Amino acid sequence: MSGETLTHLDEQGRARMVDVSAKPDTVRVAVAKGEVRLKPETLALIRQGLMKKGDVLAVAQVAGIMAAKRTSELIPLCHPLPLHQVDVQLTLEDGLPGVLITATARTTAKTGVEMEALTAVVVSALTVYDMVKAVEKTAQITNIRLVEKHGGQSGDVVNE
Amino acid sequence: MSGETLTHLDEQGRARMVDVSAKPDTVRVAVAKGEVRLKPETLALIRQGLMKKGDVLAVAQVAGIMAAKRTSELIPLCHPLPLHQVDVQLTLEDGLPGVLITATARTTAKTGVEMEALTAVVVSALTVYDMVKAVEKTAQITNIRLVEKHGGQSGDVVNE
Amino acid sequence: MSGETLTHLDEQGRARMVDVSAKPDTVRVAVAKGEVRLKPETLALIRQGLMKKGDVLAVAQVAGIMAAKRTSELIPLCHPLPLHQVDVQLTLEDGLPGVLITATARTTAKTGVEMEALTAVVVSALTVYDMVKAVEKTAQITNIRLVEKHGGQSGDVVNE
Amino acid sequence: MSGETLTHLDEQGRARMVDVSAKPDTVRVAVAKGEVRLKPETLALIRQGLMKKGDVLAVAQVAGIMAAKRTSELIPLCHPLPLHQVDVQLTLEDGLPGVLITATARTTAKTGVEMEALTAVVVSALTVYDMVKAVEKTAQITNIRLVEKHGGQSGDVVNE
Amino acid sequence: MSGETLTHLDEQGRARMVDVSAKPDTVRVAVAKGEVRLKPETLALIRQGLMKKGDVLAVAQVAGIMAAKRTSELIPLCHPLPLHQVDVQLTLEDGLPGVLITATARTTAKTGVEMEALTAVVVSALTVYDMVKAVEKTAQITNIRLVEKHGGQSGDVVNE
Amino acid sequence: MSGETLTHLDEQGRARMVDVSAKPDTVRVAVAKGEVRLKPETLALIRQGLMKKGDVLAVAQVAGIMAAKRTSELIPLCHPLPLHQVDVQLTLEDGLPGVLITATARTTAKTGVEMEALTAVVVSALTVYDMVKAVEKTAQITNIRLVEKHGGQSGDVVNE
């Protein structure tokens, strides 16, 4: 890692949005994951909602997809880019116990879509938190990480 | 927890923004925390930036404050409310190793500001992630939780 | 109606956001309705989705609630205000055939919430349209109207 | 229509933003129309405003153009895309009586711009509603539909 | 000015949104002004547009009003607050030559509305710039300043 | 300048977003500048903040970069486009006295990025204003202008 620098800071240490105009447009995919840790009782309440027509997971999924589209508004040095697919999956996991969230973002662009996938995960997680907070004050959003990344000059990343 | 239900779902299980019009306006405070886990080398690069005029933490802090103001746009069933203070602190922690983020939100309103404090933490964390992702692909955002909450009918919460 | 003028235009005919600072804060409620007219076959496909965990109506409902919170961003002369409740109901109606949408908005403020209820209805309707447009090019959004309005100086309105 | 499914729902019925990355970029045009039905007296007041420098239709037109640019923020599963032209025309029609709104959106992209044209129409209509609501409580937004659509794999659509 | 500090920086020099929760809600008014300096020929083209139904000034006025409502989204440490009136006036001034913009913002809140009035002025000015930039590359936006401010603890300000 | 017209108005004088679909995508760069005029004492307070970890200029810089990405939301007839680089520099100038702001925007698109560079400058300037307004009521934002523009059919512009 010697010689490495943070590319979002210029030589004076000031923030900048990196110039990507010379990069080619390539297909980019990123997959991120994260968890909301809950009490078993809270998990049971969410599961109970699934029996009915609407449910916590459907709302959180929509929130995650919509947030992915607004990533560059939230993260100061993130480039705005088109999104060709956003997929958010939420599953109830007794093993955690809690909700496991997996988001995939895809585009053809000059920069990657890790931040879009990660933003989808955290906003889905916040939405689950919001919907259970009246019954549980100790929920935790945790383990948010990049799982895979394909396309672009820096090569593929497969973290798990 | 018997008899409890998720207040954001109606009797048919459909999502709803809960009616808070009968609640009094009271002073509300919430404190949330979270972490970005990094390699020691990445932490060293961020610390190095601090020696200069600009730095990763300053950008992440601004991003967190700005995101807190947009919480109700991101989280579907969250009530829009004024914010009378938002404070975001980021510190470098060799013990993690990584960045510890603490956000405080304050208002006088009919509902609490947990989601605003949590949103500030996660967007600050995403911003740190974005600024280090060129040098580290394995950063993790973790341990996002409510630390304290005061004001409102449900009483004080002190989780740690 | 003699002597009436459009309050959103000043004496020169220029647009303005009306000064409401002298008005008292009172409880305001508005209910709006609207329809998406569809072919019976499209309606059947939506109904079929209801058998599964997710569905068109759940997505459209979330979209309507979220849009209500952004009403003053979309409509130039509309005052920003807090929202204490937003409720959006979508039902499948064979009689139309199509989807009937009813939105209720509630706040305590100096101005009414008709526009918030109407915005929820139209954005829910657009979302239904978006989700069926691959199978039907002739859907219509129609009959968007204020049904009821309570609170404020101009008195109650009950249109149906 | 046998064998058709709603492409915005996956095999489990969960919402998704469809993957369009394999589609070619082609020129896309969509034209949508809609109406605001008003009392003849209200129409007269709007017409009177036209005599002066500012007017209801100018404000509604700007609102429609601006809303078209935010379509993908409002409609959960709609892809973000560039817009190369947005044109919104509003005309006073004694025959309705009311305001007839026609919006055209144009881009070069992987997906169509129907939703952008329709969003321009409905937000222009809401803006007219907002500006007349002090003098008329019974305005209706109605007959919002796609008129024409060109470009893309599904071929041309001409509904009227 | 001895002993004064910048209230938006904490004791470590970090940015913060100042805590205003202890301040009373009072009526606040601010008036700001600014100019777009143009060539006489450009001014003539704008004036010519005024003869027709639509015009540059009407679009710029709507843009300024809408921007005032989004002030706290743009300016990091600015408190979100309701707005009870926004008025933007644009006049053509041969003396400059150019466009003179005056914006007034009004609310009842814990903090002032200077930034809202100033934001309305600069976004109106940018809109004029955008509409004339095809015919003039040397327009200047200049002399943006607070003219008056009333309400709040720091007393009235009258700058001209 | 004879024969010239304002391209953002149609033949009836109505606003329109110009059709750029036939234009080629080319590399576009724009540089804009502007100033915040301050009292020497205020300048000294900002300079003092620079000694510490955070500072006024860092916050204003982030605000400018973020605003550039939202230009098409603020300016009604401005085309949405990707941004491949945004750079904002703020320097303290005793000669003004005040803060000199220079913003550069870069993209590959069908239209230029002057408005993005100018928007970055004005929002950075508003942010400086906001952070000093408690100690100085007479700050002025002034001399906002396009300095350079490259790419596109209308050729290079170099104003200084």
| CATH level 1 class label of chain A | Alpha Beta
* Low-confidence region ranges of chain A: none
Number of helices of chain A: 4
The main sheet of chain A comes to: 5 strands, antiparallel
Q: Please indicate the count of domains of chain A.
A: 1
The count of β-strands of chain A is 5
CATH architecture tag of chain A: 2-Layer Sandwich
- The helix-and-strand class of chain A reads alpha+beta
Strand content of chain A: 25-35%
Attribute tags:
homohexamer; 160 residues; alpha+beta; Alpha-Beta Plaits; 4 helices
Describe this protein's structure.
The structure is a homohexamer of 160-residue chains. Chain A is an alpha+beta fold. Chain A has one domain: Alpha-Beta Plaits, CATH 3.30.70. Chain A is 29% helix and 29% strand. The first copy, chain A, has helices at residues 40-50, 56-68, 71-74, 114-132; strands spanning 26-37, 85-93, 98-109, 140-150, 157-158. Chain A has a five-stranded antiparallel sheet. In chain A, a hairpin with a 6-residue loop joins strand 4 (140-150) and strand 5. In chain A, helix 2 (56-68) runs antiparallel to helix 4. The longest helix of chain A is centred in the last third of the chain and has 19 residues, at 114-132. The two termini of chain A are 22 Å apart. Chains in contact: A-B, A-C, A-D, A-F, B-C, B-E, B-F, C-D, C-E, D-E, D-F, E-F.
In short:
Six copies of one chain form a homohexamer. The first copy, chain A, has one domain: Molybdopterin cofactor biosynthesis C (MoaC) domain (Alpha-Beta Plaits, 2-Layer Sandwich), CATH 3.30.70.640.
